[in-house]
Amino acid sequence: MSDMITADLVDLDLSADTKEAAARALAARMVAQGRVTDLEGFLADVAAREAQMPTGLDGGIGIPHCRSAHVVEPTLAFGRSATGIDFGAPDGPADLIFLIAAPAGADDAHLTILSSLARQLMNTEFTSALRDVGDAGTAAALIRGDEAPSTSRASTEPSGEGAEEVAGSDAATSAESAHGAAGAAAGAAGASQNSAATPVAASTGAAAGTTAAQAQAQGASAPAQATSAGVGSGAESGSDSGVRPFRIVAVTSCPTGIAHTYMAAESLENAGRETGVELVVETQGSAGFTRLDPAVIEAADGVIFAHDVPVRDKDRFAGKPTVDVGVKAGINRPAELIGEVREKAARGEASAPAPAAGATPVERAGDSTEGYGTKLRKWLMSGVSYMVPFVAAGGLLIALGFAIGGYKINKAPSVMDHFMWTQADSWGALLFQIGGVAFGFLGPVLAGYIAYGMADRPGLVPGFVGGAISLTINAGFLGGLAAGLIAGGVVMAIQKVRIPTALRGIMPVVVIPLISSAIVGFLMFVVIGKPIASAQKGLTDWLNGLTGTNAVLLGALLGLMMCFDLGGPVNKVAYTFATAGIAVSNPSDSAMKIMAAVMAAGMVPPLAMALATTVRGRLFTQTERENGKAAWVLGASFISEGAIPFAAADPLRVIPSAMVGGALTGALSMAFGATLRAPHGGIFVVPLIGNPFLYLIAIAAGVCATTALVVVLKGMRKQTPETTAADPAANAANPSKEPKQPVAA
Predict the structure, then answer these.
(1) Neighbours of 334 (CB within 10 A)
(2) 254 is catalytic
(3) What is the number of H-type helices and E-type strands within the chain?
(4) pLDDT for 132-143, tens place per residue?
């Protein structure tokens, strides 16, 4: 990795004024060096990653990155902008831009480069040196770690005593890096031991070493000290004086598990050194994580959670003074968090027994000030996300069983008693019965993981029990929802009860499952089960009675919902409503019509964007045209998310157009009486669709409507000359006196 960046991959006078132009300029350098084989294909991958979440960081930094099949080897290019480029950071434009490219499938290399670079960016000496450096070769050496930040500001080579000091520093750094790599490698946790001089390249080789390796590097012998990546001078001086330093363990994590995760870790470790605290961080990033040594956790005096996604295995830290905040707080105010932990420890405050009350997997996935409406949506989506794979697998198996064995296959005897290897009916019955078993998990999984979202692992047992009871009493999908919410609420209430220390060990294993299951079972069987079952039957009867205009209007409504947020919560509500109807061994005709309308509408947005980029390519950027090629396959496969890059770039034109097309398709599908037994598959399950020809016409009508609206709306935008530079290929394909590439609103 030492040649991950060279002088030829550095542009200290980056003249681009948009993030797309910046990525193009830096990527062109990679192509010139043979690191990237296809410029446009690589830029399309960069844009697709950027559409998922902005890559701008606080402090004037942009880190566009992606994995791509067009990348030959992991590569880093650096550009410095005098005017700043907007990468979506809250504090404004970025003047330091790092374009990171990794080969497809090289997950570890890609994430390690990112995490190591993120740690370096928390070092003000490092970023200041990059802003002051005078030539490309020195900048590349600084990023590689061949030069320390203090020497890189001068564009001349050091000499005399200064040169000897630098050489000694580099030698020490290299030795530390090699030792870390030999001890254990893979991550960036160990890089923080010398953040001012530890190079990105060394970090990729050394990472989160073993306890023994870290102990040797620090000259420590005690297990608690051996794993501490944040022991600073203050802590060491405390040890020398015979006074035990205050010890903190921390966990950092963010939604992408890359930049902010490691920036928060670096910030906390730096603050620990400055305040004389022995602080160890466990980074739970996308590349996985190495659990802290239980002895280190046991010896800790306090805990800091700086996270935006659930902390994995959180119960390991129960019973200690704990500060629980978002990941950005770990970056922006680490010293304050350390102070809060010390104050709680001084007052004798401690977290509740495992799992900690009020600290649930979903509840901590966002802002702590969220209302219960937002939390409720997240709890429900937690259950739905785990349920959908069961529905998809079971539904497709049942549909294939009907396709092979005919519509009377549901009357076939058990394949355990009657199975003929050479008979198609036997294979159809086998697939049907396997699918039926998979469908049987729908209620328990839905309820279990709603409760899990609310109360962590102790919620699983009463949630699954309540979901199974909902099937027993024919309460169906509604019963599963109710059981999950009740189970989660019961467990959360039990967790708030103060328990003697001696009983804490058996609470999550015996007491909570026993009491909560008994309460949930009683409520489901005796109190609310029958009313919910009646409501479920009423809903089913209403759906079965839908005909004519009512059915068409329902199809239009579901189509609007499917296209509103393209895979988001509203889309998932419509999809879950449809799959719940066919989640039985013998679904009604109305339920199968609803499923057909939902899948047809969900295919419209990506297919329409693909068609629009084909018939009116000049209205789209080169990146969007590349995304349009992939959208053909995504749309045909019923993956609505294929339209997200287009909606993110131009939501006011794309989303309303998609909703119009989706509503038209849903209404036509219901009017044509198309049916579908499979909950997924797109055009690949057309043989399983009732009235397939009319069904395809409904999809085509919606696609054409959305395409026409998008083309008209985009064609009405003002066109300015500035986009010529941003997308020269588009204007070259459409030469005229005035550039025709429009600017996105």
Answers:
(1) 26
(2) yes
(3) 31, 12
(4) 998 899 998 888
